[in-house]
Amino acid sequence: QLQLVESGGGLVQPGGSLRLSCAASGRTLDHYAIGWVRQAPGKEREGVAYAGGSDGSTYVADSVHGRFTISRGNGRVYLGMNNLKPEDTAIYYCGALFSGVLHMDPNAYQYWGQGTQVTVSS
User: Fold this and answer.
1) Low-confidence ranges of the chain (pLDDT < 70)
2) Whose CA is closest to 99, among 35, 22, 25, 21?
3) Cα 74 to Cα 72: distance, rounded to the nearest angstrom
4) Each residue of 20-41: b (16+ CB within 10 Å) or e?
5) Amino acid 54: pLDDT
6) Could you tell me which residues come within 8 angstroms of residue 107 by beta carbon, excluding any fewer than 6 positions away?
7) How much is the mean pLDDT over the chain?
């Protein structure tokens, strides 16, 4: 069983930046496909960025393209968020898929963390 832990959320003003981290307890995420999704109150879950396993593939949703990036390092996966807007306020979750194949469907991911809250407000 893979236990994922998200961190790095918080309160930030519009236009600010955050970097979220997704880590696995006692393991590296290097070969897992990772997806970052978010869910705001009253809204459907939305996939924002995905990264394949060893092939280096990535995908960032159109809704956040140019502001969000997904990257890997130190066995973790990061979601960099710049120029944050109030509509980015949500709980952000990372999910992992053992096969390492990038899927842009959150339902494909096997393991999920508890999420980290991001609030963008002045």
Assistant:
1) none
2) 35
3) 7
4) bbbbbeeeebeebbbbbbbeee
5) 77
6) none
7) 96
Report the SS3 class of residue 16.
coil
**Alpha-carbon separation of residue 45 from 29, 30, 48, 72 (angstroms):** 23, 25, 10, 23
Tokens of 55: 């092939």
Residue 9, helix vs strand vs coil = coil
Q: pLDDT tens, 45-54?
A: 999 999 999 7
Residue 26 and residue 85 in contact, taking contact as beta carbons nearer than 8 Å: no
pLDDT on residue 1:
86
The structure tokens listed for 47 are 């996939």
Helix (H, G, I), strand (E, B) or coil at 117: strand
**Strand 76-81 and strand 58-60: pairing?**
unpaired
pLDDT for res 56: 86
Structure-token match 């502001």, residue found: 67
DSSP state of 25: T
Amino acid letter, residue 33: A
